[in-house]
Amino acid sequence: MRPLVLAAALALTATGCGATVEPSATTDAKAVTLTNCGREVTFDKVPERVVTNDVGITELMFALGLEDRMAGFAMPDDKGDLSGVPWKDGYEKVKWLSKDQLTKENVLDARADLVFAGWNYGFREDGGFTPDALKKLGIPSYILTESCRNGRTKSSRGIMEPLEALYADLTNLGKLFGVEKRAAGLIAGFKKQVAAVRAQIPAGGARPTVFLYDSGQDQPFTSGRYAAPDQIISEAGGTNLMHDVADSWTTVGWESVVARDPDVIVICDYGDVGAEQKKDFLLSYAPLRDVSAVKHRRIVVLDYVDLVESPRNPAAIARLGAYLRTVGTDG
Fold first, then answer.
1. How far are the Cα atoms of 35, 77, 131, 242, 252 from residue 54, in angstroms, in the given order?
2. Radius of gyration (Cα) for the chain, nearest Å?
3. Whole-prediction pTM value?
4. DSSP H or E segment with residue 188
5. Are the C-beta atoms of residues 35 and 15 closer than 8 Å to each other?
6. In the CATH scheme, what is the homologous superfamily, with its name and number, of domain 6-192?
7. Beta-strand pair 70-74/50-53
8. What angle, 0 to 180 degrees and rounded to 10, lies between the N-to-C axes of helices 162-177 and 228-236?
9. Were both Cys, which of 87, 208, 275, 289 would link to 269 (CB 3.0–4.6 Å)?
10. Residue ranges of domains in the chain
């Protein structure tokens, strides 16, 4: 790791929207109360040793210029090339704690004073790594808004539109760490970027239906209306095939995919099974042979971090929008 030079990091961290970074908040600031997953949570001080789980959550911190407030992150090494991202300096400056999910042990070893993770993005009942368990250890948590449990079932997630979840987290983190101007600048830039894509959607035409394929052969894992792909697809000019599913990331049946006949399939690229293997499966899977997206080979690939809540979502909207504008819906 290169030595962390705080002044240089604050001055030079890439933002993607030209926002100015305020000086880091002081540790003697007053307590901050935020609304997180529908609950008011009070933080007695500004965290100084934040530990994050997974790439999207980690890059939210980097986008806000908060590398100096981080003690480390956990992330599998299957999330693509990190050397060319706007926040690549963050990966060089902050310790990679684990190539698996966070555990109590590595959080304690890092002397964390805040864990920023999400349900199924680190927090899990299996293994007892939950906000309540961390609270018993004296470690507060912040939960990724995309992953908030909504109470419809034991595990269903999502309480607001995906981009609103992104903006809510940026706003909350900006308030907590005293970088509210930075957060507001990022949000304004993202909204402008998304609006520019929306303005290019052809008026009056039918929107292509898009199926998000994450993984799974017996049953596909996909996005309902509360995961980031739903609004990425919508703002790009399409319609999420599973928009009616009141959950974020979830499993559906292939029969529903076939019946709804998507015009386009978006592959989420990550994991041991790469995008080309996923594409080969979709093109050779007999039940899908008459699906329009498969017949016409309208399959596009986006990275995992593009498709989970992250500061890369607006750029993903722009890339998908450019592709969808080339797609007809006449079968």
1. 22, 10, 16, 25, 24
2. 20
3. 0.89
4. helix 180-198
5. no
6. Nitrogenase molybdenum iron protein domain (3.40.50.1980)
7. parallel
8. 120
9. 275
10. 6-192, 203-324
CB half-sphere exposure, 170, CA atoms < 13 A: 29
Could you check whether 6-192 and 203-324 share the same CATH topology?
yes
pLDDT tens per residue across all 331 residues of the chain: 333 222 333 233 334 443 344 554 444 458 999 999 999 999 999 999 999 999 999 999 999 999 999 999 999 988 777 888 888 899 999 999 999 999 999 999 999 999 999 999 999 999 899 999 999 999 999 999 999 998 888 789 999 999 999 999 999 999 999 999 999 999 999 999 999 999 999 988 889 999 999 999 999 999 999 999 999 999 999 999 999 999 999 999 999 999 999 999 999 999 899 999 999 999 999 999 999 999 999 999 999 999 999 999 999 999 999 999 998 655 4
Looking at the chain, the number of H-run helices and the number of E-run strands are 13, 14
Place of tokens 């949000």: 187
Token pair in block for residue 285: 């899977």
Report d(CA 239, CA 212) in Å as an integer.
Answer: 11
Looking at the domain that runs over 203-324, which CATH code has it been given?
Answer: 3.40.50.1980
For residue 201, the one-letter residue type is: I
DSSP-derived secondary structure letter, 68: G
